[in-house]
Automatic annotation (TrEMBL):
Residues 439-550 form the Pyridine nucleotide-disulphide oxidoreductase dimerisation domain. Residues 14-27 have a biased composition (Polar residues). This is dihydrolipoyl dehydrogenase. One of its GO terms (molecular function) is flavin adenine dinucleotide binding.
Length: 571
């Protein structure tokens, strides 16, 4: 589950991070138009699944939370890792072997760089071990349970199914086994391609100098890719059993009868889907005045009607969980709720468990940033639009980059991957600026939610400032043949655009396989394709992709001629 999204609305060097449930915001910096051939659209690369491929699809993201002090060195057996210059031990050293570090390392080897990656815990970082990968395994189970439990849905197909049940340990094992498999494949892919895996806590000693364990190495360029950890607000006591973070919840050690989830962003929503499918009652605690505050308001309203109201979920909005005490001596978990504005005590909840889903914090302590005069901003490493690290005096630190959750630009695994690949392009002589507004996000509930670009309020704010009009087009899954064949007609797709020139400003989808459907829109934004061009694309019938086809066709663009879209904006 990746988790928090934030883009800078000011200068490229400004770190801007919103609440964990906030969506991608806009950036106004101007950059050179990207060559579509240079764009990389990133996921776990095929090598992660044991497949050899030269396809330029990558991965990346956060590094470990706790790091072992040991200092072992695994030298890759193949000669594919290029020879470094005589001045340095390596051309590129990456601190953090999460999905982000992995993607950057593999791309670097492809570019002929002598590359090493340092990891103090386990390869795969948050995404593989404590995030995207195991959570999707649990959500796969919850999706099947929902379908089997929905008697009306099954009868509509003419199917009769006995009461569905589950084995908690087997469900937990499914998530753990998947994480182990992907972690092993990531390690093997780096070793087979010639990346040196260095084990130990990595820190920066000075310019182009890194220490791991008791060993010091030099590198022409260094990438920080240390990721993030769960953020726990003050006053909350986490015991790992009854008061837990997402790290603990993914182990699924027990299914509480009643669980409070603090935060209604991506993490909270996905876990509510899992817990309610497995029989729990859920209470959301949200500091803002509405649930799912980071989503497009119209999408959020529909999602609440489908994902929350019919299920065993209640909620408290406009309140902080000021104090949470774990269950002890036969007493339940207690949660003190205070008014978000007045700070007065409003209520006290007694529940079986509490999940803290208030977002993630960068893991940047102990990196030795003081040795190069770098000061973090709320824990984030300040970077410019090219991921180059900025020191305390506002100057760029030569040959030092930071990607992924550690820089706070967009806390998503695939965003970190794209950033890492962009950095490698730069250090190998090709200028590259990533357009963060083209990076999609998804919430893997049932049905799913996905989005790319601006929400409608963000687009209207931008339009007012810059003096243009916006248009909004919508289509319904109820009009899609494939969705109706699956009896999954609940859902909409929404397009926000400029009628004067056909520029796509944002796309939001709620419905079956929304996470897969969003990529046609995100790729269109990345490549600068306008609506008047993409509306002529042909989609197979009957498929869910026709939802997006109809969405683009529904837009009323005044411009009749095709022309390149405005230059992509880098956050």
């Amino acid at each position: 589950m990746q988790f928090s999204i934030s883009l800078s609305l000011s200068s490229p060097s400004t770190i801007c991070r919103s609440d964990s449930s906030s969506p991608a915001a806009a950036s106004n910096g101007n950059v050179n138009l990207l060559n579509p051939r240079s764009l990389r659209f990133c996921g776990l690369r095929r090598e992660a699944f044991g497949l050899n491929s030269s396809i330029s699809m990558r991965r990346i993201e956060s590094s470990s939370v706790t790091r072992r002090p040991c200092s072992n060195r695994i030298l890759a057996s193949l000669s594919g890792n290029g020879a470094p210059s005589k001045e340095f031990d390596y051309d590129l050293v990456i601190i953090g072997a999460g999905v982000g570090g992995h993607g950057a390392a593999l791309h670097a080897v492809e570019k002929g760089l002598k590359t090493a990656i340092i990891e103090g815990d386990v390869v795969g970082g948050t995404c593989v071990n404590r995030g995207c990968v195991p959570s999707k395994a649990l959500l796969a189970v919850s999706g099947r349970m929902r379908e089997l439990q929905n008697e009306h849905h099954m009868k509509s197909f003419g199917l009769q199914v006995a009461a569905a049940g589950y084995d908690r340990q087997a469900v937990a094992d499914h998530a753990n086994n998947l994480a182990s498999k992907i972690r092993s494949n990531l390690t093997n892919s780096m070793k087979s391609l010639g990346v040196d895996i260095l084990t130990g806590f990595g820190s920066i000693l000075g310019p182009q100098k890194v220490k791991y364990g008791d060993t010091v190495i030099t590198a022409k360029d260094i990438i920080i890719a240390t990721g993030s950890v769960p953020m726990v607000p003050k006053g909350i006591e986490v015991d790992g059993k009854t008061v837990i973070t997402s790290d603990h919840a993914l182990k699924l050690e027990f299914i509480p009868q009643w669980i409070a989830i603090v935060g209604s962003g991506y993490i909270g929503l996905e876990f509510s889907d899992v817990y309610t499918a497995l029989g729990s009652e859920v209470t959301f605690v949200e500091a803002l005045d509405q649930l799912m505050p980071g989503f497009d308001p119209e999408i959020g309203k529909l999602a609440q009607r489908v994902l929350i109201n019919p299920r065993k979920i209640d909620y408290h909005t406009g309140v902080f969980a000021s104090k949470i005490t774990p269950a002890k001596d036969g007493k339940p978990v207690t949660i003190e709720l205070i008014d978000a504005k007045t700070k007065e005590l409003k209520d006290t909840l007694e529940v079986d468990a509490a999940l803290i889903a208030t977002g993630r914090a960068p893991f940047t302590q102990g990196l030795g940033l003081e040795n190069i005069n770098v000061q973090t901003q709320r824990g984030f490493v300040p970077v410019d639009s090219r991921m180059r690290v900025i020191d305390a005096s506002g100057e760029l630190v030569p040959h030092l980059y930071c990607i992924g959750d550690a820089n706070g630009k967009m806390m998503l695994a695939h965003a970190a991957s794209a950033q890492g690949i962009s950095v490698v392009e730069q250090v190998t002589g090709k200028d590259h600026v990533l357009n963060h507004l083209s990076i999609p996000a998804a919430c893997f509930t049932h049905p799913e939610i996905s989005m790319v670009g601006l929400t409608e309020p963000q687009a209207r704010e931008k339009a007012e400032k810059e003096g243009f009009e916006i248009g909004v087009a919508k289509t319904s899954f109820k009009a899609n043949t494939k969705a109706l064949a699956e009896n999954e007609g609940e859902g909409i797709a929404k397009l926000i655009y400029r009628p004067d020139n056909g520029e796509i400003l944002g796309v939001h989808i709620f419905g079956m396989h929304a996470a897969d459907l969003i990529h046609e829109a995100s790729n269109a934004i990345a490549m600068g394709t306008r609506i008047q061009d993409i509306k002529y694309a042909v989609h197979a019938h009957p498929t869910l992709s026709e939802v997006i086809d109809e969405l683009f066709k529904a837009a009323k663009v005044k411009a009749n001629t095709s022309s390149p879209a405005a230059e992509p904006v880098a956050a």
